[in-house]
Design brief:
two-stranded antiparallel sheet, 57% strand, 13 strands
């Protein structure tokens, strides 16, 4: 967490300096917003009965998007990129593994005593696609932008952590998570500060995940701030 926070703050400081700088020479073939860094609050939607979140669940996202203007004014563009992200979810769903079989239960249904931490974390390779509209030009680095898009992600690693009076358990690389995840995105704002939202279209867990006989169809909803770096 300290590493991601430090890296994020470093990239944000670069973004602020870049956005406040003016080009020495006018470049009529300029491209915009090709590096990004963002931090999000991660929520779970479409949860089964009894599942709720607690604490603050964070996501850190970094990457590169190739900006490809599609009109002479260059205020419309397509973007395709590659990035990485780390996403944690603090909640009351206990993920256990017995004899290589993963099952789920609610905290209140188990004798755990005081639970101080219960979360799972996913680490993803992201491939974002964006349709980009902005009010920029070759010399103006502060402009309005609206970037709707789609993001496809591949899960490379996952981990769970449960710490209570009764247990201190850590698991990793469970096969109960969906390897492929995808959803709709939107970034919009002015200058350095931009609003970002991601709405997943498929569940975090695969079709074998169930709680009390009911499928776990929880989906990710991420809301936060996006910083673009030239």
């Amino acid at each position: 967490m300290k590493f991601y926070t430090s890296l994020f703050l470093f990239l944000v400081s670069i973004a602020c300096l870049a956005q406040d700088s003016l080009a020495v020479e006018v470049d009529n073939k300029y491209r915009e917003d090709q590096f990004y860094a963002s931090i999000t609050y991660n929520a779970l939607s479409n949860n089964p009965k009894g599942v709720s979140q607690n604490g603050f669940s964070t996501g850190f996202h970094f990457g590169f998007i190739r900006d490809m203007p599609i009109n002479p004014k260059r205020n419309w563009a397509l973007g395709i990129g590659l990035g990485i992200s780390s996403n944690s979810y603090n909640q009351n769903l206990v993920i256990r593994e017995n004899n290589n079989v993963v099952d789920f239960a609610l905290q209140n249904d188990l004798e755990l005593g005081n639970v101080t931490k219960n979360k799972f974390t996913t680490y993803l390779i992201d491939v974002p696609f964006e349709l980009r509209w902005r009010t920029s030009n070759a010399t103006d680095y502060k402009f309005w932008r609206i970037y709707p898009g789609f993001k496809f992600s591949y899960l490379v690693y996952n981990s769970t952590k449960l710490k209570s009076d009764a247990t201190d358990e850590r698991l990793s690389n469970l096969d109960i998570f969906n390897k492929f995840q995808y959803g709709l995105t939107l970034s919009a704002g002015y200058g350095t500060w931009n609003f970002q939202v991601y709405c997943a279209l498929n569940p975090i867990f695969d079709g074998n995940a169930s709680l009390n006989g009911n499928s776990i169809d929880a989906k990710a909803l991420k809301v936060g701030i996006m910083f673009y770096i030239l």
